Amino acid sequence: MTPQAAVQQLVEHLGEGVGESAEFRGEVTMVVGRDKIAAACRFLKEHCGFDMLTDLSGIDNYGEEPRFAVAYHLYSLTHRCPLRLKVLLDEDDALVDSVVGVWSTASWHEREAYDMFGIRFAGHPNLKRILMWEGYPHHPLRKDFPLAGLPADLPATAEEAGRVETANMLGGPYFSGPGQRGTVSREPRQYDTAAEQADKLSSPNKAEPV
Amino acid sequence: MSSVVNTAVDLRAESRDVVVTRLDSAVDWARKNSCWPMPMGLACCAIELMATGASRFDISRFGAEVMRFSPRQSDLMVVAGTCVYKMAGVVKRLWEQMPNPKWCIAMGACASTGGMYRSYAVVQGIDRILPVDVYISGCPPRPEALLEALMALQRQIENEKSIENLRQDQHQPRMGGAPVRGPIVVQG
Amino acid sequence: MATQREMEIIDSAYRAQLALEEELSGDKMLVNMGPSHPSTHGVLRVILELDGEVITDLTTDIGYLHRGDEKIAENMTYTQFIPYTDRLDYLSPLANNVAYAYAVEKLLGVTVPPRCQYIRVICSELARISSHLLGVGAMSIDLGAMSVFLYTFAEREKIYNLCECLSGARFTTSYTRIGGLAHDMPAEFAPMLRQFLDEIPAAIDETDKLLSRNKIFLARTKDIGVLSRADAIDLGTTGPILRASGVDWDIRKVHPYSGYEYFDFEVPVGTVGDCYDRYLVRMEEMRQSVSILRQAIEKLPEGPVNVDDPKIVLPEKKAVLTRMEELIHQFIQVTAGINAPPGEVYFSAENPKGELGFYIVSKGGGTPHRLKIRGPSFVNLQALQKMSVGHMVADLISILGSIDFVMGECDR
Q: I want to staple C66 with a disulfide (CB 3.0 to 4.6 A). Which of A131, B135, C97, C154 is the partner?
């Protein structure tokens, strides 16, 4: 059983609702429609021997349509063969069937995808936040959520510890791409006061060395 | 007549000072040599904390081997590792549960300032939620650095006037005019 | 007048079974364990529903060390992220460095030279011994055998000396780079490693003698926390847990990377899947690692350690300071990062805790669009509920020790 053979069998079994398959660096990725993913996973587990779900992750393609994707990494211990399935989801309808019924290990992975991206999984027995606390209002791994974070309240039991505040990035992260500010202006040690730094960072300086 | 009374009072005050000073030294000596740590081992620095407690570096030489995981029985909270906001409430509550006198060492870059984790989930320094006495830099700091920090804390403790301060709240706030005892910064 | 009555002696296993089957008297009690707890090996919180001493349900609460690594990775170049990989499984930083470097190299489509592969094998196996020593040491101190903890930590100090010689840091090494290593192995490393390899088997044997036939240790670990083969696969567990449950699966044998196909070693596989089996698997893996290290240091080939590609590896400093082309390459790599092609890869390595996987989605450029870290402890901890329900609270300590998870890679 090779990934290509598995893809072939899947296409024959599902008929429509299956998208393109791509190959990169020896790995096969297959896009599956979101209403077919549970059936596809069940078929692959029972008939093609993909008995292990290695990983399940969400991806945010901010700016593209559809915005979210969920990547399933399947693995067959008997055939020693991996396969990746992908489901593409729209931003306002980020709902997909849960595969907890196929592999129990999907439980926590799906909770993490919900926690980090806000992707909901229908049929999940316990879809709660797993890495952030219950009641945290944001989904951190979305591209429109800043790395420094946004202010939020801590849970009621931890009120004495204050509030969540944004981290001071000091002009970072420290790498440059084309069109970005130069590293010299972002270097925090250069400034005497925070006000001076804020002033420098806000005004683009065309003549600065990169 | 009154001068005799005044002199008597003064003499008693002096002798009281001598007694108090001697008592202070004794109490401070006892306290500094038996700082029982509450290891708030959160991340990688906890491994170096365990290594300091193990046989090569042997924190037991300094009296701090008894790593009490119960806050009620410990004096020194060593925050070793990154404190994330989800954990912050827990750390704060454990700190409040520790009886006075208590001290805090922020071990490592993450506990001191958030370290290299400038992100949405990390408290940028444990001193945002507790008063810290000693900061140790390093990621993770070598066990020698932790021992140096413990020794620096011991030097600070032996200069505290414990008995004199008995009436006041032992752990003075860091800001707001009260005498500041630290912070001491140790290079790790 | 004395009467004789028959007394029924109920042993713990039978009692546990009774508790599951019928409602014993009294209400169930909710007990919180952690996140600050000596036996939770880090910041793990477990909420136990107890019927007396017997666990009837268990909820795991993680996230107390969630530092936002994956979000940070989207804002860093590939090379800048290497120190963060150290802190994932912080008991075996070298192994994480190696796994990450291979993942990015798979994305770039480069293969490192043989000397680099052998040195990376040395790194991984040293990390494996270090991690298992601590796993066994922590498990035994939780069960009361304090001496073993001190002995294993003494051996780990020798590994720290080796790491310090190799990379400059005892612990968080950041030794690998994309396309090679930070620098070649220093000359004094090989004799140090040989001396260590002469000493470590005695230490492993000493730990073995103290624990493996110890009645108390056996009573606390045999038939405790049994995970069946089917459950282990269904729950996605990997590493010593999967092997102890009877699945002969080791990425180093099945999908060899870093030249592991040229090494001669065995993979220990358990039968029952209890805590004792997991402990035995780790002990034997340490011995196999010693054997691999001996082979690696004897057969270490000469040659360069970095890929000969100036767009991936920083050029030599002399050339950077004197020639234009190298200066440009250095500049672009440091400021903008290595230019990766668009695409996605998943690479997994056999880390001491299990399968550490990196799923990198690249849209071109120097930073990943998405970097998902498949931490083995995150997946292995899901098995905790299956293993513990029906056991007593004291057994939970053995089970936690035998899973040997680390919260750095669980929460990321």
A: A131
Q: Let me know: does C346 contact C353? Beta carbons within 8 Å.
A: no
Tell me the H-state helices in B119-166: 143-158
ipTM, interface predicted TM-score of the complex: 0.87
Residues of chain C with C-beta less than 8 angstroms from the C-beta of B69: 36-38
Q: Which amino acid appears at position B46 of this protein?
A: A
Chain B residues near residue C157 by CB distance under 8 angstroms = 51, 54, 56
pLDDT bin (cut points 50, 70, 90) of residue B164 is low
Angle at C63 between CA C372 and CA B133, to 5 degrees: 115
Give the confidence band of C180 by pLDDT, cuts at 50, 70, 90: very high
pLDDT in tens, C40-90: 678 899 999 988 888 989 999 999 999 999 999 988 899 999 999 999 999
Q: Which H or E run contains B110?
A: helix B108-113
Residue C156, classified by CB atoms within 10 Å of its CB into exposed (0-12), middle (13-18) or buried (19+), is buried
Q: How many CA atoms lie within 13 A of A110 on its CB side?
A: 24
pLDDT at C126 over 90: yes
* Residue A55 to residue C374, Cβ atoms within 8 A: yes
pLDDT at A62 over 90: no
The verdict on a CB contact (< 8 Å) between A161 and B121 is no
The predicted model gives C197-226 an average pLDDT of 92
When the pLDDT of each residue in chain A is averaged and rounded to a whole number, the result is 82
Residue C133: what pLDDT? 94
According to the CATH classification, is domain A1-131 in 1.25.40.10?
A: no
Domain boundaries, chain A: 1-131, 138-167, 172-204
A122 interface with C at CB cutoff 8 Å? no
Q: What is the average pLDDT across C221-229? A: 91
Here the tokens at position C280 are 């035995």
What residue type is assigned to position A36 of the chain? K
How many angstroms separate the Cα of C311 from the Cα of each of A34, C179, C320, C364?
A: 40, 10, 13, 14
pLDDT at B24: 79
Find the CB nearest C343 among A24, A104, A140.
Answer: A24
How far is the C-alpha of C394 from the C-alpha of C54, rounded, in Å? Answer: 9
At residue C340, does pLDDT exceed 80?
Answer: yes
> How many other CB atoms sit within 10 Å of the CB of residue A92?
7
Of all residues in chain C, the percent with pLDDT exceeding 70 is 93
What b/e sequence results for C5-26 when a residue is b if at least 16 CB atoms lie within 10 Å of its CB, and e otherwise?
A: eeeeeeeeeeebeebeeeeeee
Distance between CA atoms of residues A119 and B108, nearest Å? 36
In this structure, how many other beta carbons lie within 10 angstroms of the beta carbon of residue B154? 20
Cβ contacts from A onto C, under 8 A: 114
Residues in B closer than 8 angstroms to A172, CB to CB, are: 118
pLDDT tens sequence across C392-405: 999 999 999 999 89
* Residues in Cβ contact with C301 at an 8 Å cutoff, skipping those fewer than 6 apart: C114, C115, C118
Taking the C-alpha atoms of residue C19 and residue C28, their distance in angstroms, rounded to an integer, is 11
